[in-house]
Amino acid sequence: MISKYIKLWLSWFKLEIEGDMAYRMNFLLHLIAGSIFSVISPLIMYFIYNSSRGIPGWSFWEIMLFVGTTNLVWGFCSFVFFPMIPICISYVQQGTFDRVMIRPFNPLGFLTFSSIELNEIGGLFVGVTLISTALIKLKTIILFSNIIYYIILIILALLFIYSLIVLTSAMCFIAVKNFGIHAFIEAIGAYTEYPLTIYGPTLNFVFTFILPVGIASFYPVSILLGKVGFSSIAIIALPVFAMFGFSLFIWSIAMKKYSSAGG
Amino acid sequence: MNKWTETNLGILRLSFKDFFVYRWDFLVWTIAQPLMLVIFYFLWTSVYAHSGTGIIQGFTLQQMINYYVIIMVLRFIISTNIDRWTADKILNGTLTKDLAKPITYYRFWLVRTIGGSLFLTLTMGIPMLVMGMIFFGLNISSLVNLLLFLVSALLAIILNFTLILDFGLSAFWLQRYGGLSSVRYAIFGLLNGSVIPLVLFPQALQKVLTFLPMQYTMYSPARIFLGNYTVMQSLFVILMQFIWIAILFIFHRLVWERGIRRFAGVGS
């Protein structure tokens, strides 16, 4: 079952590489652009820490670890999940989603495993580089258990962003148009670029229990650095699973509403 | 009404209609933009509180927040995707439709962009300024500054349009434009002062940026509005905007003439 989807993903990956290699210069420029975008946040932090004491509770290299984790999570999602949205918009507007529905795949599974954007891999590299550099510079002893918790929370972060993408894609099906809703994902993405502690208690609560933005990097990095305990995993995991369930529910409604008329 | 005015008014009406066609995108964008402002509000409030100092690089917290309010207003006013539209038209051959118009491509789209900016100023810019005044203590430093800002903002629209259009013309020589467009977007976002005031950059970089056009599209007009510049400094900004518009327009004509000779109108 799973191997069927992995084969599908690998086929698309091969096609994506062939497509990108046909326009090498364009591909290279996309990589450069992705890297510049990913460097903007660390640069902002560098300038802020250069001219002030920075963000309370976070040293410079801790915040670099934070920004690197944000880049890692969003870079990965841009690479493997985000293309789902334009693909859905195209299917909806042309009324060609029937082609997906008659395939021997679950439609959501098919969309998920056929969305790849190799152009976006630059952010992922910047994220990994920042995390590695920050960990070396921090010279903090990090417990092995905290590394495991960090990885678990990163997986939950990917699930959270995937849920947002499923929700957005479903909304495009329901509204039968691209109404710029991706602007909301960008805004949510921007909220994940800074530690939750800056937003004050009310938004802190909202970003933990209602729209768990904190999972994208605040909780993973906090647990890695020992700023929060194991209980945080349980606290943040429930809203993430709830969000995932909600996105699947909305997706099922969207599938029922779909007609081939286009828009 | 003479023909010149009549043509321009006709194009302005078209640009107003664009917003009604794409009203949902416009509405979502309108709601999403202030969400970004909230982030900067919390970020800088937290940084200033932690630093225990009232001033960072000459900015008080109030001025810093006001800076982002003005930047948001300017972003509404000057935003354009003219490079992508132009590149698409060149690459898929539909530029022929524009070439058949009895008006130059540059003038048609500039007037249309100004029309869009006018619409956004009335529907978004002014309400945002009023909200900034109510919620963030934004104030107009003086009538002179306001006038200088209005001139500077209009020039910023023209400068930004010409600069971005020039990038789009590279599609005459490229097979794909997406990559270059992304690089342009990323670099401009950093160097036009929309994510962080350029005064926080290292001194040497600030000096280099004075000679580049990007900061005159957002950063400098914003600082004029905030009253950070003397009248002479504001006039220097306006002069630099004029110079850059002239340079980029001449460049546009040269590139356009060469590009149009290559253009086959069949797409790629």
Write a short abstract of this structure.
The complex is a heterodimer of chains A (263) and B (268). With 263 residues, chain A is mostly helical.
Count the E strands of chain B: 2
**How do the strands of the widest beta sheet of chain B line up side by side?**
1-2
**H/I helix tally of chain B:** 11
Report the sheet with the most strands of chain B, covering strand number, pairing sense and barrel closure. Answer: 2 strands, antiparallel
Helix content of chain A: over 70%
Q: How much β-strand is present in the residues of chain B? A: under 5%
Number of strands of chain A: 0
Morphology of chain A: globular
Helix count of chain A? 12
Structure explained in plain terms:
The complex is a heterodimer of chains A (263) and B (268). Chain A is an all-alpha fold and 263 residues long. Chain A contains 12 helices and no strands. The longest helix of chain A is centred in the middle third of the chain and has 32 residues. Chain A is globular and about 55 Å long. Helices cover 75% and strands 1% of the residues of chain B. The mean pLDDT of chain B is 88. Chains A and B meet through α2 and α9 of A and α2 and α8 of B.
Q: What keywords describe this structure?
A:
heterodimer; A: 263 residues; mainly alpha; 12 helices; B: 268 residues; 2 strands
Topology of helices and strands:
The complex is a heterodimer of chains A (263) and B (268).
Chain A: H1 2-22, H2 24-51, H3 60-80, H4 84-94, H5 98-101, H6 107-113, H7 121-138, H8 144-175, H9 182-191, H10 200-210, H11 218-224, H12 231-257
Helix pairs in contact in A: 2-3, 2-7, 3-7, 3-8, 4-8, 8-11, 8-12
Chain B: H1 3-21, H2 23-51, E1 55-56, E2 59-60, H3 61-78, H4 82-92, H5 95-99, H6 105-136, H7 143-168, H8 178-191, H9 203-210, H10 219-225, H11 231-262
Antiparallel strand pairs in B: 1-2
